[in-house]
Amino acid sequence: MSTAKASKPDVAVASLEPAPATKPNPPAEAKVPKSAVELRAARRRILQRRFGIWVGLPTLVAVVYYLFIATPQYDAWIMLAVESNDGRTDKAPNAGNLRDARLLRESLRGAPALAVLETGGAFTAHYRDHGDWVTGLSSDAGTDGVLSYYRDKVSVTHEAGTNLTSIRVRAFSGDAAHSFGTKLVGFAQAWVDQQNQTSSAARLKLAQSEIMRERTQLATAAAALAKIEQPKPTDPASIDHMIAEKRLEAALKGFQEAQLEVGRAQRYLVVLDGPSHPDTAAMPRRAWGILTVAIAALVLVSVLSLLGASVREHAKF
Question: What is the model's pTM?
C-alpha cells in the first residue's frame, strides 16, 4: 500500500514539467527567377499576354466587323463647272468663275442642299435603315448631327486654281447614290439660276432708276418750255430741255450697256461628268481596314510598353 501512495507525487511532479517548445515554421521563400533564362522567359510571357489582349482582341473585333457586319457603300461621282462669257474675257481670266465655284461648294455643303435630299424624309430614311452600327445614321441624331453626317457622306471638293467642283455621294446602294447625285445637280443648277437673277436684277435696277429720274427731269423741263410762247434756243428753258433730253439719251444708252453686261456675266452650269451609277462597292476595304487596326494596336502597345519601361527605370534611381 505504501508503494501506491508514493507513486502519486511522482505523477503530479511530471504534470508540472513544461512541454517542449515547438519550433516555428520558417517563412516560405518567394518564388523568383533563379537565372537570366527564367527572367527572360517570364518577361516574354508577360509581353505575349499583353500583346494578345491589346493587339489580338482589337484585330479579332476588326475581322468580325469587316467580314460579317460592315455594310457595302457605293460612291457616285459628279464633276461640275461654273462658266460665264465674262470669265473668259476678263483681264484676270476665270476670276469670276473661280469665285462662283467656291460659293457653289459652300452651298452644296450647307443645309439647303441637305433639305433637297431630305424631301419626303428620303435622306434620313435611307441612312438609318440600311447602315450598320458604325456607318449608319443614329436614330437620335438632331439637326446638327444629320448635317454633320451629310457632310461626311457627301464630299464636295473645289479643284484649286480652277472652276471645277467634284462631288462624291456615298450611299448604301448604287441606286440611292445616283439618285442623291442627280438631286444635287438639280440643286446646283437652281443655285446658278438664282445667282443670275440676283445679279441681273441688281445691275438693271440702278440703270432703270436712272432712266426714271431723267424722264422726270425731262418732263419738268418740257413743262417749263411749254409756258414760253416763242422759245428761243438761247432761253434757259430751252437749254434745260436740251440738257434733259441728252441726259435721258445717256441713261437709255447706259441701260442698254447694263443689259449687255448682264448677258456677258450670265453664269451657266456645265456637268462634265456624272452622276455615275456605281455597281461595285467602294467601301469597306476589308483587308486594309483589318490591317490598319492591327498596326495601330501594335504601335500603341509598343509605345506604351516603352513608356512603362522608361518610368520603371527612372523609379530605380
Answer: 0.72
